[in-house]
Amino acid sequence: PTLAFKDVALQVLPHLLQAAKHQTKDTKETIILTATSGDTGTAALRGFRNVAGTRVIVFYPQHGISPIQEAQMRSQQGDNLHVVAVKGNFDQAQTTVKEIFNDPTLAAVLASHQQHFSSANSMNIGRLIPQITYYFSAYGQLLRQGVIQTGDQVNFAVPTGNFGDILAGYYAAKLGLPVGRLICASNKNNVLTDFFTTGTYDKRREFFVTNSPSMDILVSSNLERLLFDVSGGDAELVQQLMHELQDQGHYSLPTELLTKLKQLFATEYATPDEIQTEINRVFKEANYLIDPHTAVGSIAAHRYRTLSGDPRPCVVVATASPYKFPETVLQALDNTVPSQSTGLDAIEQLAQIDPRPLTAGVEELFTNQPQPVLTTTPAAMPRMVLDILKKTDK
Questions:
Q1: Which CATH number is 87's domain given?
Q2: CA quadruple 338, 344, 347, 351: dihedral positive or negative?
Q3: What is the domain range of residue 55?
Q4: pLDDT of res. 340
């Protein structure tokens, strides 16, 4: 419904949450608090709209998402939905959301009103579990097509920002899916490329706003879960590494852990110009439109195969409809298109090129009515949460 791969998990998550609350006899109101780099927020708002016993507060970087992503997010209808633009980048919003989750004072205030926090980000394990099915489903399709035989290994190239979707692939491998390599595909904010190459995670670098905005991230939250698992559940080590990242801006893995990671993970990254070129190439060769994030995965898949000589089939894990990023896709297909073609105008132009009919989710964009949006700074986000809850308390 919101043209992103996260829709699958976020249509399931409200049902998982309601079932869990029923089983545990939890009668508190659940406050879904989420920072988004574009797609998660819209999918969460759509999935949880008017779900009894929940309220949703989504923070997004004010100038860090595409025009369509912002319009779509602001137009989600529901009495329990709240959208806030943050004057900062995604990492700042996400860091503050984590601080809010861990703030005992805020927790006490919510508890006094019979409320508690939860998340629709991939930090919520209920988001990750449904995403594991993507990998099994893709493997099943390859079996049915006769590309592979049962037990053959398959590689997956995964566009990666917050490390949620690729972590679901890791869990799929642990569950027994024959995965060869998980190729971590990054954009110009290639902190993960350096990490898997050197074993050092260093966020002390320039932050780039790119044409693949959902991957404009320097702190990948779910990497902590991977480190916990490959270290054999060494909580003290992982806590130490996370403290080093927070206090010093970097950490380095023990050599044996990096060796373990390299057995399953490969990594590549793509520049904005390469993304444009890849969108154009795929359309010319396959008559198929891809969005800029999927283009990153496609570039990584081809580059990895060329450099490694790995002959195993590779699935590129696509992320979103090209119509969420029509400006970038249009420019990639025809750089003579006026740069002022944005939003719905860009969608209409793209539809004239795309041989496939528009989906219902794209058609819906033309009837959406954006609502006024609140604005705040990272420092003021905790107060904004309390103000929203106070104003909407019945």
A1: 3.40.50.1100
A2: negative
A3: 6-121+369-392
A4: 66
| Burial class of 356 by CB neighbour count within 10 A (0 to 12, 13 to 18, 19+) | exposed
Q: 290 near 317, Cβ under 8 Å?
A: no
* Separation of alpha carbons 218 and 240, rounded Å: 19
Residues that are catalytic = 6
Residue type (1 letter), 64: G
Is beta strand 314-316 parallel, antiparallel or unpaired with respect to 154-159?
parallel
Identify whether residues 48 and 141 lie together within a single domain: no
Q: DSSP 3-state assignment of 220?
A: coil
pLDDT along the chain (394 residues), means of 10: 91 92 94 89 93 94 88 90 94 92 93 93 86 97 98 98 95 98 97 97 95 92 96 98 97 97 97 97 96 98 97 97 93 78 89 90 88 92 94 68
According to DSSP, the β-strands at 250-252 and 200-202 are: antiparallel
Q: Is the pTM of this model over 0.85?
A: yes
The Cβ of residue 73 has, within 10 Å, a number of other Cβ atoms equal to: 29
Number of domains in the chain: 3
